[in-house]
Amino acid sequence: MEIYVVRPGDTVDQIAREEGADVNSIISINQIEYPYRLAVGQALLLQRIQPKASVTPLAGFDGRQPDVSETGPAGRRGIFRSGYAYPFISSQVLEETLPFLSEMAVFSYGFTAEGKLIPPSADDEWMIRQAGRFAAMATLTLTPLGADGRFNNSLVSALVRQKDVQRRLVAALAGVMQEKGYSAVNIDFEYVLREDRDGFTSFVAYAAEVLNMLGYGVSVALAPKYSDAQQGLLYEGMDYGGLGAAANWVVLMTYEWGYTYGPPMAVAPINQVKRVVEYALTKIRADKICLGVPNYGYDWPLPYERGFTAARTMGNVEAVELAVFYGVPILFDETAQSPYFRYWHYGIQHEVWFEDVRSWREKFRLVETYGLRGIAVWQIMRLFRAGWVLLDSLFSQKL
Protein backbone atom coordinates (compact mmCIF):
# COMPACT_ATOMS: atom_id res chain seq x y z
CA MET A 1 0.00 0.00 0.00
CA GLU A 2 1.07 3.58 -0.64
CA ILE A 3 -0.42 7.01 -0.02
CA TYR A 4 -0.17 9.13 -3.15
CA VAL A 5 -0.90 12.88 -3.22
CA VAL A 6 -2.41 14.10 -6.51
CA ARG A 7 -0.34 16.58 -8.53
CA PRO A 8 -1.48 19.03 -11.23
CA GLY A 9 -2.37 17.22 -14.44
CA ASP A 10 -2.73 13.79 -12.82
CA THR A 11 -5.42 11.38 -13.97
CA VAL A 12 -6.47 8.05 -12.50
CA ASP A 13 -5.14 6.20 -15.55
CA GLN A 14 -1.81 8.00 -15.40
CA ILE A 15 -1.37 7.38 -11.68
CA ALA A 16 -2.18 3.69 -12.11
CA ARG A 17 0.32 3.35 -14.95
CA GLU A 18 3.16 5.24 -13.25
CA GLU A 19 2.64 3.84 -9.75
CA GLY A 20 2.02 0.23 -10.67
CA ALA A 21 -1.55 0.14 -9.37
CA ASP A 22 -4.81 -1.15 -10.82
CA VAL A 23 -7.19 1.55 -12.10
CA ASN A 24 -10.31 -0.13 -10.78
CA SER A 25 -8.67 -0.61 -7.38
CA ILE A 26 -7.83 3.11 -7.14
CA ILE A 27 -11.38 4.05 -8.06
CA SER A 28 -12.97 1.57 -5.66
CA ILE A 29 -10.76 2.04 -2.59
CA ASN A 30 -10.93 5.83 -2.81
CA GLN A 31 -14.63 5.98 -3.77
CA ILE A 32 -13.99 8.12 -6.86
CA GLU A 33 -17.15 8.81 -8.84
CA TYR A 34 -17.42 8.93 -12.64
CA PRO A 35 -15.99 10.81 -14.56
CA TYR A 36 -13.12 10.17 -12.12
CA ARG A 37 -11.93 13.74 -11.65
CA LEU A 38 -9.32 14.43 -9.00
CA ALA A 39 -8.40 17.40 -6.83
CA VAL A 40 -4.81 18.60 -6.61
CA GLY A 41 -3.60 17.68 -3.12
CA GLN A 42 -6.07 14.80 -2.76
CA ALA A 43 -4.61 11.81 -0.89
CA LEU A 44 -5.18 8.45 -2.57
CA LEU A 45 -4.54 5.04 -1.09
CA LEU A 46 -2.94 2.84 -3.74
CA GLN A 47 -2.68 -0.93 -3.70
CA ARG A 48 0.29 -1.93 -5.81
CA ILE A 49 0.21 -4.77 -8.31
CA GLN A 50 3.83 -4.10 -9.33
CA PRO A 51 6.82 -3.31 -7.09
CA LYS A 52 8.36 0.14 -7.22
CA ALA A 53 11.81 0.32 -5.66
CA SER A 54 11.67 4.04 -4.91
CA VAL A 55 8.63 3.78 -2.64
CA THR A 56 8.51 2.41 0.90
CA PRO A 57 5.41 0.25 1.47
CA LEU A 58 3.12 0.82 4.41
CA ALA A 59 4.10 -2.46 6.07
CA GLY A 60 5.66 -0.60 9.01
CA PHE A 61 5.25 2.95 10.24
CA ASP A 62 9.03 3.29 10.51
CA GLY A 63 9.66 1.99 7.02
CA ARG A 64 10.84 -1.49 8.03
CA GLN A 65 9.14 -4.81 7.60
CA PRO A 66 7.83 -5.99 10.99
CA ASP A 67 9.33 -9.00 12.74
CA VAL A 68 6.71 -11.72 12.40
CA SER A 69 8.05 -13.48 15.49
CA GLU A 70 7.17 -10.38 17.52
CA THR A 71 3.90 -9.39 15.97
CA GLY A 72 2.19 -12.70 15.28
CA PRO A 73 1.25 -14.72 12.19
CA ALA A 74 -0.32 -11.81 10.33
CA GLY A 75 2.85 -9.73 10.46
CA ARG A 76 1.55 -7.03 12.83
CA ARG A 77 -0.13 -7.20 16.21
CA GLY A 78 -3.87 -6.78 16.15
CA ILE A 79 -5.74 -3.87 17.67
CA PHE A 80 -9.27 -3.39 18.95
CA ARG A 81 -11.44 -1.52 16.44
CA SER A 82 -14.68 0.06 17.52
CA GLY A 83 -17.19 2.13 15.57
CA TYR A 84 -20.27 4.00 16.79
CA ALA A 85 -23.45 3.81 14.71
CA TYR A 86 -27.05 4.98 14.96
CA PRO A 87 -29.78 2.39 14.27
CA PHE A 88 -30.72 4.22 11.07
CA ILE A 89 -27.35 3.50 9.45
CA SER A 90 -27.52 2.25 5.87
CA SER A 91 -27.47 -1.55 5.84
CA GLN A 92 -24.98 -1.42 2.95
CA VAL A 93 -22.58 0.88 4.84
CA LEU A 94 -22.81 -1.28 7.96
CA GLU A 95 -22.24 -4.50 6.05
CA GLU A 96 -19.14 -3.10 4.34
CA THR A 97 -17.71 -1.65 7.56
CA LEU A 98 -18.32 -4.55 9.96
CA PRO A 99 -15.54 -6.80 8.58
CA PHE A 100 -13.05 -4.20 9.84
CA LEU A 101 -14.56 -3.90 13.33
CA SER A 102 -14.05 -5.70 16.62
CA GLU A 103 -16.97 -3.81 18.14
CA MET A 104 -20.06 -2.00 16.88
CA ALA A 105 -21.39 0.45 19.48
CA VAL A 106 -25.09 1.26 19.01
CA PHE A 107 -25.87 4.90 19.80
CA SER A 108 -27.75 5.17 22.00
CA TYR A 109 -29.88 4.11 24.97
CA GLY A 110 -31.00 6.76 27.45
CA PHE A 111 -32.54 6.65 30.90
CA THR A 112 -34.92 8.55 33.14
CA ALA A 113 -34.20 10.16 36.49
CA GLU A 114 -35.87 7.12 38.08
CA GLY A 115 -33.50 4.65 36.39
CA LYS A 116 -35.75 3.42 33.59
CA LEU A 117 -33.87 2.49 30.43
CA ILE A 118 -35.00 4.22 27.21
CA PRO A 119 -34.28 2.32 23.96
CA PRO A 120 -33.36 4.04 20.67
CA SER A 121 -36.26 5.33 18.60
CA ALA A 122 -35.36 2.87 15.80
CA ASP A 123 -34.91 -0.91 15.94
CA ASP A 124 -31.38 -1.98 16.91
CA GLU A 125 -31.77 -5.76 16.79
CA TRP A 126 -30.99 -6.01 13.09
CA MET A 127 -27.63 -4.35 13.76
CA ILE A 128 -26.81 -6.84 16.49
CA ARG A 129 -27.57 -9.72 14.13
CA GLN A 130 -25.34 -8.18 11.46
CA ALA A 131 -22.50 -7.69 13.94
CA GLY A 132 -22.71 -11.38 14.82
CA ARG A 133 -22.39 -12.34 11.17
CA PHE A 134 -19.01 -10.60 11.02
CA ALA A 135 -17.71 -11.70 14.44
CA ALA A 136 -17.96 -8.18 15.85
CA MET A 137 -19.30 -7.67 19.37
CA ALA A 138 -22.37 -5.47 19.75
CA THR A 139 -22.15 -2.83 22.48
CA LEU A 140 -24.99 -0.84 24.00
CA THR A 141 -24.05 2.84 24.36
CA LEU A 142 -25.62 4.48 27.41
CA THR A 143 -26.04 8.26 27.37
CA PRO A 144 -27.90 10.82 29.54
CA LEU A 145 -29.66 12.42 26.59
CA GLY A 146 -32.70 14.52 27.44
CA ALA A 147 -35.89 14.89 25.41
CA ASP A 148 -34.18 17.67 23.41
CA GLY A 149 -31.43 15.31 22.28
CA ARG A 150 -28.76 17.08 24.33
CA PHE A 151 -26.60 15.73 27.15
CA ASN A 152 -28.37 16.46 30.43
CA ASN A 153 -26.20 16.65 33.52
CA SER A 154 -29.26 16.73 35.79
CA LEU A 155 -29.91 13.13 34.70
CA VAL A 156 -26.33 12.27 35.62
CA SER A 157 -26.79 13.88 39.04
CA ALA A 158 -30.05 12.00 39.66
CA LEU A 159 -28.31 8.73 38.82
CA VAL A 160 -24.99 9.03 40.61
CA ARG A 161 -26.48 10.45 43.83
CA GLN A 162 -29.07 7.66 44.34
CA LYS A 163 -28.01 4.04 44.80
CA ASP A 164 -31.50 2.71 44.20
CA VAL A 165 -31.64 4.45 40.81
CA GLN A 166 -28.28 2.93 39.91
CA ARG A 167 -29.45 -0.54 40.87
CA ARG A 168 -32.60 -0.22 38.73
CA LEU A 169 -30.65 1.05 35.73
CA VAL A 170 -27.93 -1.59 35.89
CA ALA A 171 -30.55 -4.33 36.30
CA ALA A 172 -32.38 -2.97 33.26
CA LEU A 173 -29.13 -2.88 31.28
CA ALA A 174 -28.40 -6.50 32.15
CA GLY A 175 -31.89 -7.54 31.09
CA VAL A 176 -31.77 -5.81 27.71
CA MET A 177 -28.23 -7.03 27.00
CA GLN A 178 -29.21 -10.62 27.71
CA GLU A 179 -32.44 -10.35 25.73
CA LYS A 180 -30.93 -8.74 22.63
CA GLY A 181 -27.46 -10.23 22.57
CA TYR A 182 -25.27 -7.27 23.50
CA SER A 183 -21.78 -8.11 24.77
CA ALA A 184 -20.82 -4.85 26.49
CA VAL A 185 -22.00 -1.40 27.51
CA ASN A 186 -20.23 1.87 26.72
CA ILE A 187 -21.01 4.61 29.26
CA ASP A 188 -20.86 7.93 27.43
CA PHE A 189 -21.68 10.70 29.91
CA GLU A 190 -20.64 14.23 28.96
CA TYR A 191 -20.84 17.44 30.99
CA VAL A 192 -20.56 15.63 34.33
CA LEU A 193 -20.62 18.24 37.08
CA ARG A 194 -17.51 18.67 39.22
CA GLU A 195 -19.49 17.77 42.34
CA ASP A 196 -20.60 14.52 40.65
CA ARG A 197 -17.07 13.45 39.72
CA ASP A 198 -16.61 10.84 42.45
CA GLY A 199 -20.22 9.68 42.21
CA PHE A 200 -19.82 9.10 38.48
CA THR A 201 -16.65 7.08 39.04
CA SER A 202 -18.44 5.01 41.69
CA PHE A 203 -21.34 4.34 39.33
CA VAL A 204 -18.99 3.09 36.59
CA ALA A 205 -17.25 0.85 39.13
CA TYR A 206 -20.60 -0.54 40.33
CA ALA A 207 -21.85 -1.14 36.79
CA ALA A 208 -18.60 -2.90 35.87
CA GLU A 209 -18.68 -5.06 39.00
CA VAL A 210 -22.23 -6.28 38.35
CA LEU A 211 -22.04 -6.62 34.57
CA ASN A 212 -18.61 -8.25 34.59
CA MET A 213 -19.98 -10.96 36.88
CA LEU A 214 -22.65 -11.60 34.25
CA GLY A 215 -20.03 -11.83 31.50
CA TYR A 216 -20.46 -8.34 30.00
CA GLY A 217 -17.73 -5.75 29.39
CA VAL A 218 -17.95 -2.10 30.47
CA SER A 219 -16.15 0.80 28.80
CA VAL A 220 -16.38 4.52 29.47
CA ALA A 221 -15.95 7.48 27.11
CA LEU A 222 -13.67 10.25 28.38
CA ALA A 223 -13.67 13.91 27.36
CA PRO A 224 -10.21 14.93 26.07
CA LYS A 225 -8.23 16.30 29.02
CA TYR A 226 -4.64 17.52 29.19
CA SER A 227 -4.21 17.79 32.96
CA ASP A 228 -5.79 17.18 36.35
CA ALA A 229 -6.43 20.89 36.77
CA GLN A 230 -8.16 21.49 33.44
CA GLN A 231 -11.26 23.59 33.95
CA GLY A 232 -14.54 23.42 32.08
CA LEU A 233 -17.80 21.50 32.22
CA LEU A 234 -16.49 18.83 29.87
CA TYR A 235 -13.45 18.04 32.00
CA GLU A 236 -13.93 18.65 35.71
CA GLY A 237 -16.22 15.65 36.27
CA MET A 238 -13.83 13.24 34.51
CA ASP A 239 -11.46 11.40 36.86
CA TYR A 240 -9.17 9.67 34.37
CA GLY A 241 -7.41 7.56 36.98
CA GLY A 242 -10.57 6.46 38.76
CA LEU A 243 -12.57 5.77 35.62
CA GLY A 244 -9.65 3.98 33.98
CA ALA A 245 -9.41 1.67 36.98
CA ALA A 246 -13.17 1.11 37.21
CA ALA A 247 -13.89 0.25 33.55
CA ASN A 248 -12.55 -2.60 31.46
CA TRP A 249 -11.37 -0.10 28.85
CA VAL A 250 -11.82 3.56 27.95
CA VAL A 251 -12.44 5.63 24.82
CA LEU A 252 -10.66 8.96 24.53
CA MET A 253 -13.00 11.32 22.66
CA THR A 254 -10.11 12.97 20.85
CA TYR A 255 -12.09 15.04 18.38
CA GLU A 256 -14.26 18.19 18.16
CA TRP A 257 -11.53 20.79 18.46
CA GLY A 258 -13.06 21.99 15.24
CA TYR A 259 -16.83 21.83 15.83
CA THR A 260 -20.14 23.23 14.59
CA TYR A 261 -20.09 26.53 16.48
CA GLY A 262 -16.33 26.99 16.85
CA PRO A 263 -13.84 28.64 14.49
CA PRO A 264 -12.57 26.75 11.43
CA MET A 265 -9.85 24.27 12.37
CA ALA A 266 -9.02 20.57 12.26
CA VAL A 267 -11.52 18.30 13.99
CA ALA A 268 -8.72 16.28 15.58
CA PRO A 269 -5.35 18.07 15.24
CA ILE A 270 -2.64 15.52 15.94
CA ASN A 271 -0.68 17.82 18.26
CA GLN A 272 -3.72 18.18 20.52
CA VAL A 273 -4.63 14.50 20.29
CA LYS A 274 -1.10 13.56 21.33
CA ARG A 275 -1.31 15.81 24.42
CA VAL A 276 -4.46 13.98 25.55
CA VAL A 277 -2.92 10.55 24.97
CA GLU A 278 0.22 11.44 26.90
CA TYR A 279 -1.82 12.74 29.84
CA ALA A 280 -4.09 9.67 29.77
CA LEU A 281 -1.06 7.39 29.92
CA THR A 282 -0.08 8.92 33.27
CA LYS A 283 -3.42 7.71 34.68
CA ILE A 284 -4.50 4.64 32.68
CA ARG A 285 -2.73 1.56 31.34
CA ALA A 286 -2.02 1.77 27.62
CA ASP A 287 -3.75 -1.55 26.91
CA LYS A 288 -6.99 -0.07 28.28
CA ILE A 289 -7.03 3.00 26.02
CA CYS A 290 -8.87 3.28 22.69
CA LEU A 291 -8.07 6.38 20.69
CA GLY A 292 -11.10 8.25 19.36
CA VAL A 293 -10.89 8.88 15.60
CA PRO A 294 -13.32 11.18 13.76
CA ASN A 295 -14.87 10.08 10.47
CA TYR A 296 -16.21 13.46 9.33
CA GLY A 297 -15.37 17.09 8.68
CA TYR A 298 -16.95 20.53 8.77
CA ASP A 299 -17.71 23.26 6.22
CA TRP A 300 -17.68 26.80 7.69
CA PRO A 301 -18.97 29.90 5.88
CA LEU A 302 -16.57 32.83 6.27
CA PRO A 303 -15.91 35.16 7.92
CA TYR A 304 -16.40 33.26 11.17
CA GLU A 305 -18.50 35.13 13.73
CA ARG A 306 -18.64 33.64 17.22
CA GLY A 307 -22.20 32.91 18.34
CA PHE A 308 -23.55 33.22 14.81
CA THR A 309 -21.57 31.05 12.38
CA ALA A 310 -22.54 27.37 12.23
CA ALA A 311 -20.56 24.80 10.27
CA ARG A 312 -22.14 22.02 8.23
CA THR A 313 -21.07 18.44 8.96
CA MET A 314 -19.87 16.38 6.00
CA GLY A 315 -18.21 13.07 5.25
CA ASN A 316 -14.59 12.75 4.17
CA VAL A 317 -15.46 11.53 0.68
CA GLU A 318 -18.05 14.30 0.32
CA ALA A 319 -15.41 16.88 1.23
CA VAL A 320 -13.10 15.69 -1.55
CA GLU A 321 -15.97 15.71 -4.04
CA LEU A 322 -16.67 19.32 -3.04
CA ALA A 323 -13.05 20.31 -3.74
CA VAL A 324 -13.23 18.55 -7.11
CA PHE A 325 -16.52 20.26 -7.99
CA TYR A 326 -15.17 23.75 -7.27
CA GLY A 327 -11.77 23.00 -8.78
CA VAL A 328 -9.78 24.03 -5.70
CA PRO A 329 -6.62 22.39 -4.33
CA ILE A 330 -6.62 20.47 -1.06
CA LEU A 331 -3.95 21.73 1.33
CA PHE A 332 -2.41 19.92 4.29
CA ASP A 333 -1.64 21.49 7.65
CA GLU A 334 1.63 20.00 8.90
CA THR A 335 1.04 20.92 12.55
CA ALA A 336 -2.48 19.49 12.73
CA GLN A 337 -1.69 16.79 10.15
CA SER A 338 -5.09 17.42 8.60
CA PRO A 339 -6.35 18.36 5.12
CA TYR A 340 -8.35 21.52 4.40
CA PHE A 341 -9.39 23.79 1.52
CA ARG A 342 -11.35 26.93 0.73
CA TYR A 343 -13.90 27.61 -1.99
CA TRP A 344 -16.38 30.31 -3.02
CA HIS A 345 -20.13 29.75 -3.38
CA TYR A 346 -22.58 32.54 -4.27
CA GLY A 347 -20.13 35.20 -3.13
CA ILE A 348 -19.43 33.53 0.23
CA GLN A 349 -16.09 31.93 0.96
CA HIS A 350 -16.08 28.60 2.81
CA GLU A 351 -13.39 26.70 4.70
CA VAL A 352 -13.49 22.92 4.99
CA TRP A 353 -11.50 20.70 7.34
CA PHE A 354 -11.87 16.91 7.14
CA GLU A 355 -10.01 13.61 7.50
CA ASP A 356 -8.12 11.62 4.89
CA VAL A 357 -5.77 8.64 4.87
CA ARG A 358 -2.85 10.87 5.87
CA SER A 359 -4.58 12.21 8.97
CA TRP A 360 -5.87 8.75 9.92
CA ARG A 361 -2.38 7.31 9.47
CA GLU A 362 -0.98 9.83 11.97
CA LYS A 363 -3.57 8.76 14.53
CA PHE A 364 -2.74 5.10 13.90
CA ARG A 365 0.91 6.01 14.53
CA LEU A 366 -0.04 7.08 18.06
CA VAL A 367 -1.73 3.72 18.66
CA GLU A 368 1.42 1.95 17.47
CA THR A 369 3.89 4.22 19.27
CA TYR A 370 2.18 4.08 22.66
CA GLY A 371 0.90 0.51 22.47
CA LEU A 372 -2.74 1.49 22.90
CA ARG A 373 -5.61 -1.00 22.91
CA GLY A 374 -6.98 0.31 19.62
CA ILE A 375 -9.28 2.89 18.06
CA ALA A 376 -12.90 3.98 18.37
CA VAL A 377 -14.36 5.73 15.33
CA TRP A 378 -17.03 8.39 15.73
CA GLN A 379 -19.00 7.51 13.72
CA ILE A 380 -19.38 4.96 10.92
CA MET A 381 -22.56 6.34 9.34
CA ARG A 382 -20.63 7.41 6.23
CA LEU A 383 -18.38 4.94 4.45
CA PHE A 384 -14.68 5.87 4.32
CA ARG A 385 -13.36 2.80 2.55
CA ALA A 386 -9.77 4.00 2.11
CA GLY A 387 -9.44 4.60 5.84
CA TRP A 388 -10.53 1.07 6.69
CA VAL A 389 -8.30 -0.49 4.03
CA LEU A 390 -5.41 1.57 5.41
CA LEU A 391 -6.16 0.29 8.91
CA ASP A 392 -6.11 -3.30 7.69
CA SER A 393 -2.82 -2.76 5.86
CA LEU A 394 -1.18 -1.51 9.07
CA PHE A 395 -2.88 -3.72 11.66
CA SER A 396 -3.91 -6.89 9.90
CA GLN A 397 -5.70 -8.47 12.88
CA LYS A 398 -8.77 -7.23 14.72
CA LEU A 399 -9.08 -8.10 18.38
Using the alpha-carbon principal axes, give the shape: globular
CATH topology label of the largest domain: TIM Barrel
Rg estimate, integer Å: 22 Å
CATH class of the largest domain: Alpha Beta
Q: What string, H for helix and E for strand, traces the elements in order?
A: EHHEHEHEEHEHHEHEHEHEEEHEEEHEH
Distance between the termini: 22 Å
How helix-rich are the residues, as a percent range?
A: 25-40%
Alpha-beta classification: alpha/beta
How much strand content do the residues show?
15-25%
Description of the molecule:
The structure is a single chain. α8 (197-213) packs parallel to α9 and α12 runs parallel beside α13 (385-394). This protein has 13 helices and 16 strands. α4 (91-97) links the parallel β3 (80-85) and β4 (103-111). By secondary structure, it is an alpha/beta fold. The protein starts with a strand and ends in a 5-residue tail after the last helix. The longest helix is centred in the middle third of the chain and has 18 residues, at 163-180. It folds into two domains: 2-46, LysM domain (Membrane-bound Lytic Murein Transglycosylase D, Chain A), CATH 3.10.350.10; 78-297 and 357-394, TIM Barrel, CATH 3.20.20. The chain has an eight-stranded parallel beta barrel with strand order 3-4-6-7-8-9-10-16, surrounded by six helices. Strands 12-11-15-14-13 form a five-stranded antiparallel sheet. The chain has a two-stranded antiparallel sheet with strand order 1-2.
